[in-house]
């Protein structure tokens, strides 16, 4: 998809947003943004330079806070530079994305200890939520029934440790991991100890995995505390995802639902990067912001 095609799809998405009627309602959610579109992924212990590019752009667009991997935070922390970065761009940290080993019970103690270390870094810099993601598996020969007990017990142990730190946490299902499908998500959320483990879905990942993302959010709405707001189109760029309003996810319905609950979740816009993408990270964020403005959302000036 080239820039002209993106523009056409964007206009169609904006038309759908305008016709939804959501713009007339008062929007209460304050929306943030994750940093992966800029390539901010953990790479050793160095202070990833892409984090500053992400924080700069996210702040310039008026989003309310940011999310990144706590390993990246630790790299900046080790150099004594993270506080300066946050203060310079006046963009608060909201959450960190943590992966736990859920399938190998022999490594659980080590994994929980690692999660505690990451959680402490999130909390040190003002974050309030640790997104708890499952470990990757070879889905072609993955047996959910054989791994179910370990996965659920692992989620409970990791979640309890993070809550004990004073952080919120929730399951973030992900393609290519030990919790991917709709049935796996439902089984986990209906069986885990939800006193500690809440739900932190990636709605784009749900749609990509074949589920109706809006239906899943509706079914577990009382447990939703955090969300990656992502759209999915199935194209060649951005791992099949796209800026908001250009894909198949019913973004207006999902936002309406989370607006309606008394304990509103963190909502973080996200878009995966890819090679030869037709828009820069800043342009994709501008596109998603414009779509959200059509829905009535306000941003920092």
Please give the oligomerization state of what you see.
single chain
Determine and state the CATH class: Alpha Beta
Report the structural category: alpha/beta
The total of beta strands comes to 10
Q: Helix-strand pattern, N to C?
A: HEHEHHEHEHEHEHHEEEHEH
Strand content: 5-15%
Q: Order of strands across the biggest sheet?
A: 6-5-4-3-2-1-10-7
Shape, please?
A: globular
Second CATH tier, the architecture? Alpha-Beta Barrel
Number of helices: 11
CATH T-level fold name: TIM Barrel
| Spatial gap, N to C terminus | 32 Å
Q: Helix content range of the residues, please?
A: 40-55%
Can you tell me the CATH superfamily?
Divalent-metal-dependent TIM barrel enzymes
Largest sheet: 8 strands, parallel
Mean pLDDT: 92
Q: Rounded to an integer, what's the Rg over CA atoms?
A: 18 Å
Overall number of structural domains: 1
Low-confidence stretches: 18-24
Describe this structure in words.
The protein is an alpha/beta fold. It has one domain: TIM Barrel. It is built from 11 helices and 10 strands. It has helices spanning 3-19, 49-60, 70-78, 82-89, 108-124, 144-164, 182-191, 203-208, 213-219, 251-260, 281-294, and strands at residues 31-34, 66-68, 93-99, 129-133, 168-171, 198-199, 226-229, 231-232, 241-242, 266-269. The strands form 2 sheets. The protein has an 8-stranded parallel β-sheet with strand order 6-5-4-3-2-1-10-7. A two-stranded antiparallel ribbon has the order 8-9. Strand 1 (31-34), helix 2 (49-60) and strand 2 (66-68) form a beta-alpha-beta unit. The longest helix has 21 residues, at 144-164. The radius of gyration is 18 Å and the shape is globular. The two termini are 32 Å apart. 48% of the residues are buried.
């Amino acid at each position: 998809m080239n820039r002209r095609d993106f523009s056409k799809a964007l206009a169609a998405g904006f038309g759908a947003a305008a016709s939804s009627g959501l713009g007339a309602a008062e929007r209460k959610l304050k929306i943030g943004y994750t940093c992966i579109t800029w390539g901010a992924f953990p790479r050793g212990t160095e202070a990833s330079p892409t984090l500053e590019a992400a924080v700069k752009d996210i702040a310039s667009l008026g989003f309310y806070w940011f999310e990144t991997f706590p390993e990246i935070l630790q790299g900046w922390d080790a150099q004594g530079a993270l506080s300066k970065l946050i203060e310079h761009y006046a963009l608060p940290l909201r959450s960190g994305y943590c992966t736990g080993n859920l399938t190998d019970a022999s490594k659980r103690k080590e994994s929980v200890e690692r999660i505690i270390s990451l959680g402490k870094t999130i909390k040190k810099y003002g974050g309030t939520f640790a997104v708890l993601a499952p470990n990757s598996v070879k889905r072609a020969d993955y047996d959910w029934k054989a791994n179910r007990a370990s996965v659920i017990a692992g989620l409970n142990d990791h979640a309890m440790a993070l809550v004990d730190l004073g952080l919120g946490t929730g399951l973030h299902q992900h393609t290519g991991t030990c919790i991917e499908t709709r049935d796996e998500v439902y089984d986990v959320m209906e069986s885990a100890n939800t006193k500690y483990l809440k739900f932190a879905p990636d709605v784009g990942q749900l749609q990509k995995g074949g589920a109706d993302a809006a239906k899943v959010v509706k079914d577990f709405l009382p447990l939703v505390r955090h969300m990656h707001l992502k759209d999915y189109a199935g194209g060649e760029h951005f791992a099949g995802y796209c800026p908001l309003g250009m894909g198949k996810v019913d973004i207006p319905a999902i936002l309406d639902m989370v607006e309606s609950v008394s304990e509103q979740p963190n909502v973080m816009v996200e878009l995966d990067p890819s090679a030869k993408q037709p828009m820069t990270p800043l342009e994709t964020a501008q596109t998603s912001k414009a779509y959200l403005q059509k829905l009535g959302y306000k941003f920092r000036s």
